[in-house]
Specification:
The protein is mainly α. The protein has one domain (36-174). It is built from 8 helices and no strands. The protein has helices at 3-19, 38-51, 60-79, 88-105, 113-128, 132-141, 148-156, 162-190. Helix 2 crosses helix 8 (162-190) and helix 3 (60-79) packs antiparallel against helix 5 (113-128).
């Protein structure tokens, strides 16, 4: 008799897990020069970009790329299997940064992360070519903004983004910490336990 409720509880738990959809995103191929790791590049690039407001002032293409990197990291770090050694707090901070950026740029909260990444990278490419109309079309096509022209103006003059600055700096620090832990763990495992 006790097996039926246990089986039912197990099915309910499995069903709940199956319905929990984690929204993921990936960066485009041109997000990294050469053969580097796109996630490492996004961590380093976004940490640098948001460390000082002057790095992005008047640079809407660079701001679009940096915002896309945060969007990607907010999906990848909490859910990616490569980041199980990272503190869960980092993923939460990055998700808070994503919310702060979306609010500042006028990107609806319910927009899929991949749509935002694609729109921002496509807009950045168009801006680098000097094609503002194509940048606006890229943003509108991905439904990343209600008013793409206003989003482009906001990218050129970002407001203070303290949560984004903190989250990206913490992500960089965590990446360095995990790298050091792995190096120390690797050194001890290859020397026969002498160190």
């Amino acid at each position: 008799m006790s097996r039926a409720p246990l089986a039912l509880a197990t099915l309910l738990i499995l069903g709940a897990c199956a319905t929990a959809v984690v929204e993921t995103a990936r960066l485009p191929r041109d997000a990294v020069d050469g053969v580097g790791d796109p996630t490492r590049a996004a961590v380093l690039g976004s940490a640098y970009a948001f460390a000082d407001a002057s790095h992005l002032a008047g640079q809407p293409a660079a701001a679009a790329r940096a915002a896309a990197q945060v969007e990607y990291l907010a999906s990848e770090i909490p859910a990616g299997p490569r980041y199980v050694e990272w503190s869960p707090a980092i993923g939460m901070e990055l998700q808070g940064a994503r919310a702060e950026l979306r609010s500042a740029l006028g990107i609806p909260a319910n927009t899929r992360p991949q749509a935002v990444v694609d729109a921002l990278y496509n807009a950045a490419r168009a801006l680098q070519r000097g094609d503002t109309a194509a940048a606006e079309a890229a943003l509108q096509a991905a439904e990343a903004a209600d008013r793409p022209a206003l989003l482009l103006l906001r990218l050129a003059a970002l407001p203070p983004l303290p949560r984004t600055r903190t989250a990206t700096a913490l992500a960089q620090q965590e990446m360095v910490r995990v790298d050091q832990d792995q190096r120390l763990g690797g050194a001890g495992s290859n020397d026969g336990g002498k160190n």
